[in-house]
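Cross-check.
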Amino acid sequence: MRLPARLVPLSAVAAASALLTGCFSGAASDGSAEGGEKRIRVAMMLPPRSGLSPLSDDAFKLSRWSTAETLVRLDADGDAEPALATKWQQRGRTWTFEIRDGVTFHDGTKLTAEAVVRSLTAAATAAPKPRILDGVDLTVRAEGDSVAVTTATEDPLVPQRLSSPQLSILAAKAYAGKTVSPVGAGTGPFELTKVNGTASASLDRYDDYWGGKAKSPGVDVKFVPDGTARAAALRSGEADIVEAVPVSQAALLHEDQITEVPMPRTNTLYLNTEDGPFKDASLRAAAREAIDAKPIVKGVYEGRADVAEGLLGPALPWAADLRSPVRRAKAGAPDGQTITIGTFTDRAELPEVAQTLQQRLQKAGFKVKLDVREYANIESDALAGEFDAFILSRATVLDSGDPAAYLFSDFGSKGSFNISQLSDGTVDAALEKATETKTGDARRKAVIEAEAAVLATDAAVPMLHERVIQGDAAGVVDVAHDPRERELITTDTYVK
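Predicted model, tokenized:
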């Protein structure tokens, strides 16, 4: 049984704190650097899974550290605005982007149209491709100081796609080896100077940054998968910024140290539609009817989440207004069918969610086994369809600021993150329509129609929408609180 937040054993807190001892040994104990300026000490949740390659989810770390940049960034509404590209225009299947002048990479080489072509081509021809390019055939060529991006069919979302951190622009040196290395190869205000495997990373201020000198001299990062240890680092003063504070730890921190933001992240139960018991739509319906998210929100998340009405949550307020009731299959009788549910330990709440679902589904007539591991050790099995069900905390607009890309990736028959192994003609047609519709109200309506098509299959049971809880020490100034988890350290961030 879970202990109330304020009754966590002191021995556990002490042990967690010990995990952080010496983790920021690259700086003085108070985080100071020479000259009296303080480096920023950050405790992050997930360690790199692909050597910080921008072609993987590790790209979002590079973005949050402000070391790698893209042609386009997104504003608060998800609309595209200039970054390494200053302007763009569309002619049919081709978008032309004018490249910003006066930008240098961290190795001193100049940002050119050819450099942009190299980076984008590497992403477009990677195997597998970054998920933002799922279903997109993209070619790139230089045209003077501009870059022409051409897609197989007209794509209204090209600028938003190019905002994905997985399409960061790096120097030629990044592509010299068998893997893409961002060390010393970005264009941002901080240069990645050292990576210590899955333990830590260091960044120094890049004084020739095109956007102006950063206020902090550097950033020291420690990867701390244990949520209790991350919170303990903030309490003990060993970290200045802590991402993803577990809800169980939030009550142990001073209220001025935490910021809670509704985020486009949904805790969803994915059901394997290709193999096993949940190939039967009536058993998927039985699982869906057995799940009650309200006790999970109240108990596991201590009220710091929102019960899901669909795959898209309150971070996209337009979704609720467009949503209509979904017609689903009738529930069948489980009759003791054995199912295995997988999830991971990196998000502290998910093992508890799994235990709660185990009880609910067993009560409904299933026999339930749990397989809980670290994410790095379970992702490949989940994508290969090795589980009957999988619990995932999934960002729904992480890549492009537009949920159509997430829906295609997770539920399209050709999607690269299709844990449900779903292959449904109605869903594919709805996803294609949403992808092809121009940005604006019409696209939003098409997105909700695609969501309804997915929900009608019961391939995914959305349970709740999470809120990001970030911990910041009292001396931290102007750190980003980004619901999309793209920004964290900016040029304005520093520690008093």
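Residues 262-467 form a domain with the Dipeptide-binding Protein; domain 3 fold (CATH 3.10.105.10). Residues 441-457 form the longest helix (17 residues). Passed to J.P. for a second look.
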